[in-house]
């Protein structure tokens, strides 16, 4: 894997794809600088080597038009503050103005290009547009994990114009290493905790992960499709009847592969999908009509705790209950605490994909796990076993 460490940027211009798709408030002020901070080490490395950095990113979905609401000019000041260098901004990302600005760029300087998605050719992966972008640097660095699953001009196609002169930035390299640990190189026992609402959205991940893990915890809304498939009564719980055969097939495959599957044995059931509903703890296969399971029960959490504390490599994707409502967040918080304890005992823990990061941040677990992925969709596709186009473009697959 070629990373930024393999290059010396002295007198070189690095064309860096970053993910500065940051949230803005009504006054166009950046409300969360995490993504800018995440790209900082890569930019600093280029500058400290004696090179200059040309930053390209998208912001929102302007759909191929130069809509000023989505201008990266809004974030230039914040980028300057976070990076600690006065960043220059140029009002296009290709063409004469951009080429002139790059030609004038001196070692130690940083240039931020205008939103890539002001050009429709970005998302269509147009090679002419990618060739224009390629003129803006000597070495291409991809540090945008959040868009690595897209075959866009700046994330994938542009790489073909750089022969050997392309690599991953620190952030993307860290993401790849974290996935590798879970999928291939991590210390055993390896555990995947898959929660969330539906089996149908996680099925490809489950099938792929069965070859990689020793333990699989199934939680959240997915529980009830499995429980009902095994003959249990799930009351009004969320359940995909058309996925029950698949659920049984997964359990069969897991057994054949020697994977231990842990499904909730008891749940916190409610008489309404509401924070103020009446609740009771019931066995997961005896949920009365009119009641629905919305969080893991105490016996289940005790089982989960044992498995989590025995594991040396842990992947967590998806909450084990309706964590958005306080009454049903306890299970997800407990799982976070067990992972925290396991991590303190030396386990490697990765959280990522879809909504998981939101849950982890809401409860302050981001500093307690080993790694929190920065890419929802990109992480999900990695867990499904796909090679992401942005990664393939650098490693030459
Ligand atoms: P996902 O995006 O698939 O990871 O699903 C996350 C969503 O699953 C969250 O919004 C949770 O509220 C929801 N969820 C978790 N457990 C349940 C449950 N028992 N019933 C309904 N929804 C649930």
Biggest beta sheet attributes:
6 strands, parallel
Shape: elongated
pLDDT under 50 segments (min length 5)? none
Count of separate DSSP helical elements: 14
Roughly how many Å apart are the termini? 12 Å
Provide the helix percentage. Answer: 25-40%
Strand order of the largest sheet: 3-4-2-1-5-6
Which class do the helix and strand fractions yield? alpha/beta
What is the mean predicted local confidence, pLDDT?
95
Radius of gyration: 23 Å
Q: What's the total count of β strands? A: 17
Distinct ligands, ions and cofactors found in the model: adenosine monophosphate
Describe this structure in words.
- The chain is of the alpha/beta class.
- The radius of gyration is 23 Å and the shape is elongated.
- The protein contains 14 helices and 17 strands.
- α8 crosses α9 and α10 (298-310) runs parallel beside α11 (330-344).
- The longest helix has 16 residues, at 34-49.
- It binds adenosine monophosphate.
Secondary-structure map:
Layout: E1 13-17, H1 34-49, E2 52-56, H2 76-83, E3 88-90, H3 95-103, E4 110-113, H4 120-124, H5 127-134, E5 139-142, E6 166-168, H6 170-185, E7 190-194, H7 203-209, E8 215-218, H8 223-229, E9 233-234, H9 244-257, E10 260-262, E11 266-270, E12 279-283, E13 286-287, E14 292-296, H10 298-310, E15 313-317, H11 330-344, E16 348-351, H12 356-362, E17 371-372, H13 376-383, H14 389-395
Helix pairs in contact: 8-9, 10-11
């Amino acid at each position: 894997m070629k990373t930024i460490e393999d290059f010396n940027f002295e007198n070189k211009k690095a064309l860096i794809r970053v993910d500065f798709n940051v949230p803005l408030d009504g006054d166009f002020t950046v409300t969360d600088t995490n993504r800018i901070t995440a790209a900082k080490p890569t930019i600093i490395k280029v500058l400290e080597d004696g090179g200059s950095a040309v930053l390209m990113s998208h912001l929102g979905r302007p759909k191929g038009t130069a809509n000023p609401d989505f201008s990266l000019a809004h974030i230039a000041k914040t980028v300057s503050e976070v990076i600690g260098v006065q960043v220059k901004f140029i009002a296009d990302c290709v063409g004469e103005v951009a080429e002139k600005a790059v030609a004038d760029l001196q070692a130690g300087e940083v240039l931020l290009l205008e939103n890539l998605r002001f050009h429709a050719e970005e998302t269509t992966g147009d090679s002419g547009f990618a060739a224009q972008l390629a003129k803006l640097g000597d070495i291409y660095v991809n540090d945008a994990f959040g868009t690595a699953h897209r075959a866009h001009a700046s994330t994938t196609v542009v790489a073909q114009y750089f022969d050997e002169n392309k690599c991953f930035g620190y952030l993307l390299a860290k993401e790849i290493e974290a996935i590798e640990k879970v999928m291939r190189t991590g210390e055993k026992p390896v555990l995947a905790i898959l929660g969330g609402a539906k089996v149908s959205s996680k099925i490809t991940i489950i099938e792929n992960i069965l070859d990689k893990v020793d333990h699989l915890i199934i939680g959240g809304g997915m529980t009830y499709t499995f429980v009902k498939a095994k003959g249990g009564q799930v009351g009004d719980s969320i359940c995909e009847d058309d996925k029950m055969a698949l659920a049984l097939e997964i359990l069969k495959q897991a057994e054949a592969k020697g994977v231990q599957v842990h499904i909730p044995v008891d749940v916190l059931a409610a008489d309404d999908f509401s924070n103020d509903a009446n609740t009771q703890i019931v066995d997961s296969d005896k949920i009365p009509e009119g009641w629905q399971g919305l969080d893991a029960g105490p016996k289940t959490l005790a089982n989960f705790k044992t498995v989590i504390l025995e594991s040396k490599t842990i992947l967590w994707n998806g909450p084990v209950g309706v964590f958005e409502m306080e009454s049903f967040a306890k299970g997800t918080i407990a799982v976070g605490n067990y992972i925290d304890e396991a991590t303190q005992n030396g386990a490697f823990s990765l959280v990522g994909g879809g909504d998981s990061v939101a849950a982890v941040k809401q409860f302050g677990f981001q500093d307690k796990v080993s790694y929190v992925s920065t890419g929802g969709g990109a992480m999900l596709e990695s867990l499904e076993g796909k090679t992401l186009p942005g990664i393939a473009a650098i490693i030459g697959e």
